[in-house]
Amino acid sequence: MKTCSLIQAGRAAACACALSCLSLAAAPAHAALGDAPTVPPGASSHPLAGGAARVVSYVDDGGATVNEYVASASGTVFAYTWQGPTQPNLEALLGRYAADWRSAAAAQHAAGRDDLHGARVVGAQVVVETGGHMRAYAGRAWLPAALPEGVAEGDLQ
């Protein structure tokens, strides 16, 4: 049986810590629904609904164009839309609303109301629409109760 010294164990732990820090630093930073926005490098922004909101657009690591909708009054993200060759990480975008989405999707599936190429899942707090096919995905997710005055569901494109 081979044993290692405390020095070797310490070096291994330090190396593991450094690697995990590097992997976290490489992860893309973005906000989830209901959070304050984080603007990725290279993002563009424009006002919506006379300034009631702003749209921050960026391209994620998978090549999808993601639009982050931020309410001017509250300063929080109330919606996302996306289009591109990959789906964004919905769990990350939905944040604390992901459980609501998962349970609503499971209920919809159990009732036999799901579709191969698209879905509209209406949860208690969040609505998620996804669709498309390989290399051409599109969708949107939003908090209906958080839509700013003057912003309609149809404005989320």
Automatic annotation (TrEMBL):
The lineage of its organism: Bacteria, Pseudomonadati, Pseudomonadota, Betaproteobacteria, Burkholderiales. InterPro entries: DUF2844 (IPR021267). The keyword Signal applies. Keywords: Signal. Residues 1-31 form the signal peptide. This is Uncharacterized protein DUF2844.
